[in-house]
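Researcher: I'd like a structural prediction for the single chain below. Treat it as a standalone chain; there are no partners to consider.
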Amino acid sequence: MELLKHYVPYFNGRKTTINGYDGYTDGNNVYFIIPIQYNEEIYYEQKAISDFLKDNGIEMITSPMLNTQNQIATHQDEQDFIVYHQILQSRSFSLSHGQSLATFHQKGVDYPYQPNYISSYGQWKTLWINKVEAFETIYQQQYRERPVSPFQRLFIDTFPYIIGLSENAIQYLQETEQEQRFDHSDRPTITFQRYHDHMRQQMIWSDDLVYDHPIRDLAEHIRFLLLQDDDRSFEKVRQFIADYEQVQPLSIFSWRLLYARLLFPIHLYDFIEKTLASGDQRDHYKTYNYLLENQAYYEQTMKNFFRELNIDSSTLHIPVLDW
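Model: Treating it as a single chain, here is the predicted structure.
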């Protein structure tokens, strides 16, 4: 709590826990002290974006503060920290989930700057290729070490398959980048790293925000829905997209970009990365095995994706993978 006095002089609040995060409250103000993990410039960009969103009515943003020295980081106990601030308030939802996300994207389009550190707009192909190459290095290292854990052996056995999925997605994306049927809905906006239901949460962390094409968020939420063991998954996808398009219709380019992102197995890369970074991989073997077994269903879903949405992809000249 002593560190907070560098940000809020004479602070005299109390400790609390909100959504699993330890913080300090003073009236409706809540503060979170977080060790710095990135380049400070990233936090400055996140602060600028979150301040912009707050000024435009998105009040549940938890954003970085500047200390009394007008700096974003404070050094204490041989470590640098950042303080996030939010004003707690009750929330009501007058819009559907899809409508609220589309409205969020429309506001983000007006952000007047081009971020240098947290922008992925137009960079998916490069980022995906870099990810594949980074994991190929991990794969080669694991292969040489002849690992004994079941998860590592399964990773080695199945990674060539993941490479194949990735190459298909990258090729599809490369072809999509030649698509000329785009419109104002394809402008860059403020999005999320891995969107699920952030617009329904009590708070949005500014370090979840990136600057990208709005399709990023639609794809990641749809991916989440399709990976659930739920017979109503596609019904939810249809409703989510329909609600989104009530506010912001999608161009043909957006539909193709959505399909490309769903093809790229980000969910598998995310899980592998998280597991390899953990100390105990035993509990992750079954989950990874399930994800791989479920991939056959996921690929079938992608094969029928536009048909399930009642979109005639052949008439619109949208190519579909048939594996």
